[in-house]
Each structure stands twice: as C-alpha cells, then as structure tokens.
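Q: What would this chain look like folded?
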Amino acid sequence: MNIFNITFKITLIAFLGAGVLVACTKDDFLLNRVHPDKLFYYTDTGEKIPVYKVDEKLYIVYFSSEEGKIRDECEKAGITIVHVEPVRAYTTYIKDGTARSGAQITNLKMAIIEGNITKANAVFPATFYWAPLYYTENRNELVFTELFGVKMKPKTKLSQLEKLARRYVVEMVGIDKYDSQMFFLICSNRSKGNSIEVANRFYESNLFVFSNAGCIIHSQVRNNTNL
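A: My prediction, written as structure tokens:
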C-alpha cells in the first residue's frame, strides 16, 4: 500500500477548516524536544513504514502574533524560512462530541524552516507546535502535521479515547461526519510527543482500527502555487 494513499489524508484536507492559546512554559515545550532518529508510520491497514528524521528541517506552527519573533530568531540563528501558510481554525470538543462550548484555536500559521536546527532553541518558545521532518526509504520527505486521526474499534469507549488524550496531552478537535467512530486530535508543545509519536502510542494501545498522523509530502508543500 502506498503510504500517501490513505483515507485519512483526504479526510484531513477536508477537515482542516482558525483561539485561545494555552500558555506553554519552558518545561512544557521541552517534553517533546528530543525525537527519535527512526520511527514507524502505521498505515490504515496496520502496515509499518519506517521513517527517518531529517536533521536540518523543522515543521513549526505558531500564532500570527508571534511571526515577528519567529522571523527575528530565525534570522539571528541563520535559519531559513522556506515556506509559510495559514492554518485554519480548530475547535476543541466537549464530552458529548459537539463543539458548542469548545475553545477555539485561531490565527495559526505553519512554516518549514531549514538550517542548523541546533541553533533553533530560541524559536521553540514562540511556537504552538514543532516537529522534525522525516523521510522514507525511497527518500520522500514527509511533514507530519499537528493533526492525527483515530478510528475506534467497536468495543472501544469514548472514555478510553479521552483518557489517552489526557495522558498524552492532546485535544480532540473533530469527528468524521460520515463515521462516528473516527476522531481528529491535535498535538501542541504541551503534548508528550509529536503527532506521529502520539498516534503510534494510540495505535499500540489496541483500542483503534487505525491511528494516523496527518502527513504531507514536502515537495507538495513547496509546489503549492496557491500560496
């Protein structure tokens, strides 16, 4: 199965649709500072695809109000911002699965930055989320976004999903309109891992049919002429 031909990727594009910032302390964003050099991406059929960390590229998400600081810190560190685009709004969900009283997370932007990432420490506190890029064995570079999707097994309860969400400090932000067992969640710098790491922990709990981190092929990001 091709890693990119997954239903979740299509649903992700349809779902992304712009909050309140939960303040992150220095300790919060340190939780996911160190990422493994090799991970496995689980497809929706459970196939394990090895992916490898790219050393000099990062995907970052930040509030528009922090853009000046991001650019200043990148310039000081000699890091290049190669791509920027808006991220549409997220609304966190309450227990009954609706967004009626959920908090909105708005005015986000995403960027790809390149250079000596070891000098990027001053950038991280200004971000909502950051993660390295990864590449596959055929050298496709992947951007794993802050979003991931899970489909619960028939016997899995919503309370079990909520418990995992609390454990890994992620927020539920959507339910698939065609499948009430499929949920979308987002990571932030408060989360205990990036989206692929947390999605893997969810899948390995055996509570879900699949758990996929949203991914984009880096070349598709670069070649988007609509930006």
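The chain has one domain: 7-222.
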